[in-house]
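Teaching note: in complex prediction, the entire set of molecules is handled at once rather than each chain in isolation. The prompt given to students was simply: 'Predict the structure of this complex.' The entities are:
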Amino acid sequence: MTSMVTAVSPPRRPRRPSIVRHIPPLGVVAAVIVLGVVLLAAIAPWILTGQSPLQTDATAALHAPSAAHLFGTDQSGRDVLSRVIYGARYSLLVGLGATLLALLAGLVIGIGAGLAPRSVDGVLSRVIDVLMAFPEFLFALLVIAVIGPGEVSIVIAVALAAVPAYARVARVQTMVVSRAGYVRAASSLGVRPLAVIVRHIIPNTLGPLLVMATIGVGTAIVSAAGLSFLGLGPQPPTPEWGVILSEGRNFLATAWWIAVFPGLAITTTVIAISTVGRFLRSRSEGRSS
Amino acid sequence: MTTPFVDVQNLRVRFPDGQADAVAGISLQIAAGECLALVGESGSGKTLTALALLGLVPPDARVSADALVVAGSDAVGFREADWRAIRGRKVGLVSQDALVSLDPLRRIGREVAEVVELQRPRRSRVEVSKRVIDSLTLAAVPDPAFRERQYPHELSGGLRQRALIASAIAGQPGLLIADEPTTALDSITQAQILHLLGDLKKSGLALLLVSHDLHLVQQLSDRIAVMRRGEIVETAASAHLFAAPRHPYTRMLLDAVPRRRETAEPIGAASKAVSPKLPDGAPAVMALTATGLGRSYRAHGGVSVNAVTDVSFSLRAGTTLGIVGESGSGKSTLARLLMATERPDAGDVQLHGQPWSTEPERRRRSRRGAIQLIEQNPYDALDPRWTVRRILAEALALDTSREHSQRVSEHGQEGRIQGEEHPKKKGAVRLSELMDQVDLSPELLHRRPHQLSGGQRQRVAIARALARRPSILICDEPVSALDASVQAQILALLSTLQHSLGVAIVMISHDLGVIAQMSDEILVMHHGRAIEYGSADDVLNNPGEPLTQALIEASALL
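The expected output is the structure of the full assembly:
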């Protein structure tokens, strides 16, 4: 009811119990973790001057975690900690790159479908439906099968697999926004159609897509690590989380640390990123545009 | 006077995070067979008061009262179970929007039957269905045996409202609370629903009518309580209140609504003063001409529906054409055809004597500035991410030289252009000139739409239209979404602008009061056809069509 909303002027938060007040919201905790991972990946070469992730040492193979090697060493005597930290660079780059690519492609297709005449929209939408019928990972595998394995292939495959979902959301959002009064007003003012799309439709469509993309980065990292695990991405000894995991699985019984630490890294990063995404989504849903 | 059915003393409703009480100590009584109207603008606490009588205030609200007698029992300290015994059985509620108040998945007979079963559980099925038919008949639903099997979406707005009333009275309550029962309806249906409520009142029902529209409640209510900011500023017998309003706020509300009731005088009398007249004998310049306009849509199953059929008119520069009709009569389609955002199937539109609707959009774009649109919903008319300054700057950029406008569109907004002192300065002057024209403080320039009130947003929308220096404004229900006092201000603003700028206005509305106040000529639409078209005097004083007559009567009654 409007009467209630307008009657209250300055919003005062109800006091939370004192213990709860000192715990920051989950989204903030997750955001700090994500920032930490990004920071580590960025400054990795400077903090790990002594231990290259590729440097082998036959005398120090399969050492358990110790003061010298916090995460232990692998079968070739490489430091697992340094490999995991360097791995964050690959995973974050692949995750962000694939998501950005998917977001852009999805935006273009979605806006096209949303504004196109009904027949074109119908064809595009059915194609999207068909693509969405495949599980994302299976679709990514299919793409790799066509374009061949490799680091760039993984980015493209993961991105392509995510495009349909972005396109669908972008299409609906475009349709909503393009029926809004301010878009009609801009056209009636005599603003050229392309300018209307760039100034009004794209920015107002982007909001929900960006929130979706935040969650998508996490999914993309998991997919990329999965593909690398299967040997379809960068090849050993590249310090990529999926690759390390794949190498470590042969030593699970004798040297658990090789597989467990990159596994934990993937899990923590992905959960943190998804939590931030969900936090942003619940915040943006409460707000009316 | 017998003991009143409702006796409220010093009712207060407060929200935990609110500064002031949403309802601040009001007292009211309603006797059986009496109608009390609670009138005020949105935010005055009138709906909250009504909900308090049903125990339906939001859970975080604190309600306190010295007495809250409903149907003979004092409801102070009632629990949820106590309230349930009252709702439906002692007090019925009719809310504003029947489309959302009726369950879309249930036939309306089922909706009514629920209340009947609630009132007395173990009834036989035959008995229940008889009571359902009785209630629908009482609510004047035609052919109730057929209608009870229909779903809400199959009914018109008026019938939905009747179905809602039927379910409210099915439990045979002693009090009926009607919260804006006719706001969503056109004026003819409004009159019918009010008539129905009047009949129910005569049968001994106490009635609490909540509305923002003083004139609307006038004929039905015995007493009127005017609310403002949670308080009742004035209570008086209806006739008294209209003859001699005591509180300045009541007077303002009375003045706010377009004059619909000039006692013995015809409705059109007030219209003359507002609009400028071209001197007689001056050569008539036609700003906008529509000839035989038609537009149809393909509906389900390939059947084509004619939204607009054979509409013709011509609008002289600087005058106002009022287009009035019920909802669904094709008014908004006509507006789109005039704006040439939609192509007519038949006929054409000429702008300043030049082809308009037949031109390709590419050639139309440079002339778009001449004809501008003001729409109904100010909440969606402005880009939510943009500041007022940027919204107006976008329109102004199109107004200045082509070279300049191109540079602006490349840079996104006018503030970024470097080393171009002259046009920038000129733009700033125009900006403050525009804000001045629509009576907005320049401080609002850096606000975003969500920081503005409905009236302020509509003013920004008008300013944006004026930025292109139009000679014609198409106003499609420009005030329907606004409070009564704001409505009056916006209409006054449009009149003033017409005087000072000489723009021609096409005023589209379902409200004959608005049309009568503004128009030089009136066109009445019905089922997509122009059934009547002529000078405002002729149409209002000698309506040729029964529907026009009905519209005039409906709005004069209120």
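Point out the following to students. The mean pLDDT of chain A is 84. The interface with chain B takes residues 1-14, 180-182, 184-192, 195, 199-200, 203-204, 288-289 of chain A (CB under 8 Å).
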